[in-house]
Backbone:
């Protein structure tokens, strides 16, 4: 158990819909990262938040957005869903102190199925 | 982030040592080398990290030659439960703009 929690575990929805995925980082971790893993794309970095502020963006679609709240939990919002958005979505957290090697700890993931 | 190259798959047997080599020719001075393990439908799990020479923990050893252009993850006496995908990542870890770039990984199959 990494200490990172994600809800829901599974999500089935239809094309065009909007969903919200939630992540609670490990206690004390200030950084939250979101990754997407699909069969044909592997693990893709989406976005990184540090203490409530966006720090880095990867290949995140404009239909996707994220935020990190004052209590440090994070939400990933996916809208206008397409079949190709079906994937495992992982959240990771890290302490992120200056000069640290900043190991990321991954949650169990949310499996999104778009029908 | 430095690009990494590692074998697509490896087969082994229970009790054997598994060595996975990762090439990272354009590694930068401040880059670290990190290995993650991933089981099907689970999030990647940190295994080991190093900068140079040798690092050992309760799970694995990481060998890094002086030029740091490659590294080898060594899993001693593997068991069936070590069947997983192993990712080699290279990059600097900073407070700002940190991200991990995962390659294809090495799929290790441990046979009885």
Residues:
């Amino acid at each position: 158990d990494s200490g990172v929690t994600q809800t829901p575990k599974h999500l089935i929805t239809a094309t065009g819909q909007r969903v919200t995925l939630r992540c609670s980082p490990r206690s004390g971790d200030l950084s939250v990262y979101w990754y997407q893993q699909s069969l044909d794309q592997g693990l893709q970095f989406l976005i990184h938040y540090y203490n409530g502020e966006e720090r880095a963006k990867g290949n995140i679609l404009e239909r996707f957005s994220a935020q990190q709240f004052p209590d440090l939990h994070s939400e990933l919002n996916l809208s206008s869903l397409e079949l190709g958005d079906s994937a495992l979505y992982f959240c990771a957290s890290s302490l992120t102190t200056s000069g640290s090697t900043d190991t990321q700890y991954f949650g169990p993931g949310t499996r999104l199925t778009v029908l | 982030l430095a690009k990494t190259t590692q074998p697509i798959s490896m087969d082994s047997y229970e009790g054997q040592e598994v060595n996975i080599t990762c090439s990272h020719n354009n590694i930068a001075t401040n880059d670290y080398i990190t290995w993650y393990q991933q089981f099907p439908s689970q999030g990647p799990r940190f295994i080991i990290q190093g900068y140079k020479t040798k690092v050992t923990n309760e799970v694995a050893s990481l060998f890094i030659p002086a030029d740091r252009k490659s590294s080898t993850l060594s899993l001693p006496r593997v068991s069936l439960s070590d069947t997983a995908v192993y990712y080699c990542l290279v990059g600097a870890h900073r407070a700002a703009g940190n991200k991990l770039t995962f390659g294809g990984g090495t799929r290790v199959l441990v046979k009885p």
